[in-house]
Amino acid sequence: MPTNAAPTRPLAIHKISATCVSPIPWWCYRQQLESRAQPRTMNQFSEYTILGERHFRLLHLLPRKETADTEPPMIECKLEVAHLDLENSFEALSYVWGSPNETRPILLEGHVFHCTKSLHTALSRLVLDDQTRVLWVDAICIDQSDLDERAEQVKHMRHIYQEAQSVLSFLGDPFDGIGAAIDYLCAAADDASIHLNPKYEHFLSVNNMDASSDQLSEYIVRLFNLPWWKRVWTVQEFCLAKAGSFYCGEHMVPVNKMTQGVANLLQHAATCCMADDLAFGRSYALADSDVELDVCDALLRLEQLQQAAELQPEALFHNTLLMFRIRLATDPRDKIYGLFGLAPYIGDLVTMDYAAPIEQVYETFTVAYINRRKNVHLLSALGGNRALPNLASFAPDWTIRPSDGWSTDEGWMLTLFNRAINNRAFFNASASTTAEWEYLGPGRARANAFIFDTICVAELEQINPLLLWETTQGWLKRIHELVKKRTIEAKSVTIEEDGDSYTREDHRRFLRTLCGDLIHGEDGIEEELVGDSPERIAMLEHWWAILMSSDLPSNVSLNTNDLQRSVYTVSQGRSFVITEKGYMGWADNHVQVGDFVAILAGGVAPFILSPAVGADELGKAASGDGTCTRRYRILGDAYIHGIMQGEAFRFAGRETGQFDELDLV
Fold first, then answer.
1. DSSP collapsed to 3 states, 20-42
2. What's the pLDDT score for residue 13?
3. pLDDT for res 22
């Protein structure tokens, strides 16, 4: 059913499954953690042979046997050892493992092998009547009880999925209405000109349902909320495929057909067909899900996969991690390992080690990746809640999963991705300097950076679309008055004449800060820099006048909505901040008065650091004179108006590239 319930704000750290986090510092108990490592299958299958270098196994799914029994015969399979460098003819399976406690028996090399229910369902659907089918299935073709083999075979998955004749993707269990959802997508694929909106004479409809139907909308949302769309491993399995098909129950549709249908629907939604009264624009909360989606959000799950497939392997790995961080993995290490196949150029960056503590994997990868790329773009994934209490602040927490919490919701995670793309396109706070980090051991790293300023005001944003307009308007007025007061106070100290005035230029600086100096361009999608453009500044002033009026609904225009979206992008999950030197901007919502604005080498945006030292050290830490060992926690990147293009070096009296060494924990 559709819902518009506003999410609540969770605490900075929340619990996740005990199988995912160690309750004690990981560096103290590595041996204990290694001994606790569990295989990913419930079988102790004794027929596996040791694989040679660049060898892998293929599964031969034998033909269905005729039987007089009412019960279907047991599925029979055999294993073949093949070489990666030889020509092999096979299909690869892409599916979700499902619960290890819900299993079904098959015969593997004449022995009973218990596979998960979801795998059994897939094999039952694929078995042929008159010939053997050759497949690659990770749960069977890899000895999951052998962590060394598992790590070695994961390295080959890029090659395996690229070489497969087809990748067969099993989305999950079917539901009532899946046929209508698939029919609608296929009809959209067949005719790119057909509209969604019933106001047009030529519009898309199946079974007397169209874009105004809540029932059809919920069917489509449910289709793209099936388990396959939520798992991290399925990303590379889709992106590397030559060809493929989606399966769900008795339904099968070619990947290219569904992809075309989604593309056509999104094109119409973006250009001519969306309206507030359409069901396609409403969010739906499903009984078996903890996130809400509207139809366009749901369709984007396939659109993003297609974009990633077209970009790889040239896509930057930190972009891939950010784009798909909402996806889940049984083993949290696979939030990184499971995407390595899309980035062959970093294959030697870290050693895949499934016995290593999660925190170690995330921390060492972060430092190694920063040093490889010579920048800190990966740190744009910081911010919001963290689920691993022992993870160092400089390492993104990839275990965070989507939920209805404001900073773990799917929209917020995608906002981080969009914000990171915008930052790299328009800003250069560190003046193209090179990041040089050193891993100092568990929970510690050293970075070249410097403290620039200190936060003196932090106000949690209240301008997101889930709030009442009166709340947002009141908050904006209060922030505006606070900025005016601070501006006048700063002028009274530095300017002898007219020191009590708040000028039009000051107001424009405030407006540019609110939108992060970016607004949506004429296409409504790509951002454009406001800068000193008279036309864009005039748009901002018009937008502000509308926001402050008492009859907002009658004054909303397309440009106003585009500006509002720009403000949401820069502000979501953040607080409005003012610094001691008079700068203002947006920083992670956990920022507090007394935290620092810092420039990290290789960063396109400033970062907020929280002191991890005693109160008597704060003065030394803020001085930036290098006379004490300083430790900081990173909260995340920030938008600080006036220092987004490398100006901080000059304003701090430093040569460009002149950094201190800061210890991060």
1. CCCCCCHHHCHHHHHHHCCCCCC
2. 29
3. 33
pLDDT in tens, 360-401: 999 999 999 999 999 999 999 998 788 899 999 999 999 887
The three-state secondary structure class of 196 is coil
* DSSP-derived secondary structure letter, 157: H
Decide if 277 contacts 213 (C-beta within 8 A): no
CA 509/CA 444 separation, integer angstroms: 38
Q: 29 pLDDT exceeds 50?
A: no
H or E segment to which residue 399 belongs: none
Structure tokens given for 394 = 């400089």
3-state secondary structure 412-467: HHHHHHHHHHHHHHHCCCCCCCCCCCEEEECCEEEEEEEEEEEEEEEEECCCCCCC
| Burial of 470 from C-beta contacts in 10 A (0-12 / 13-18 / 19+) | exposed
Pairing state between β 292-293 and 284-285: antiparallel
Q: Most distant CA pair in the chain: distance in Å?
A: 101
| Torsion 83-85-89-95 (CA) sign | positive
DSSP structural state of residue 352: -
The amino acid that residue 82 corresponds to is A
Helices and strands (H, E) in the chain, number of each type: 21, 22
Helices 295-311 & 255-268 angle (0-180, nearest 10): 120
- Tell me the pairing of strands 251-254 and 244-248: antiparallel
Identify the three-state secondary structure at position 170. Answer: strand
Write down how long the chain is: 665
Pairwise pLDDT comparison (404 vs 635), residue with the higher score? 635
Q: Which of 377, 380, 464, 373 is nearest to 417 (CA)?
A: 380
CA pair distance 95, 476, nearest whole angstrom: 48
User: Alpha-carbon distance 133 to 154, whole Å?
Assistant: 23
Determine contact, residues 228/172, Cβ cutoff 8 Å. Answer: yes
Asked if residue 377 lies in contact with residue 362, where contact means CB atoms within 8 angstroms, the answer is no
Sign of CA dihedral 105, 19, 151, 148: negative
Within 8 A by CB and 6+ apart from 89, the residues are: 134, 165
Asked if 62 and 77 count as a contact pair (C-beta separation under 8 A), the reply is yes
Q: Tell me the pairing of strands 251-254 and 574-579.
A: unpaired
> Would residue 419 be called left, alpha or beta, if left means φ above 0 and alpha means ψ between -120 and 50 degrees?
alpha
> Do residues 633 and 393 make contact, with C-beta atoms less than 8 angstroms apart?
yes
Question: What is the model's pLDDT at position 551?
Answer: 65
77 phi/psi in degrees, rounded to 5: -140, 155
Name the phi and psi angles at 636, rounded to 5: 150, 175
Structure tokens at 629: 């060992």
- Write the DSSP symbol of residue 209: B
Please tell me whether residue 471 adopts helix, strand or coil conformation.
helix
- Quick one: DSSP state of residue 105? E
Paired strand residues for 417:
none
Tell me the HSE value of 332 on the side-chain side, using a 13 A CA sphere.
24
Smallest CA-to-CA distance from 561 within 524, 536, 530 is with 524
What's the per-residue H, E or C state across 549-610? CCCHHHHCCHHHHHHHHHHHHHHCCEEEEEECCCCEEEEECCCCCCCEEEEECCCCCCEEEE
pTM given for the model: 0.84
Backbone angles phi, psi at 14, to 5 degrees: -130, 165
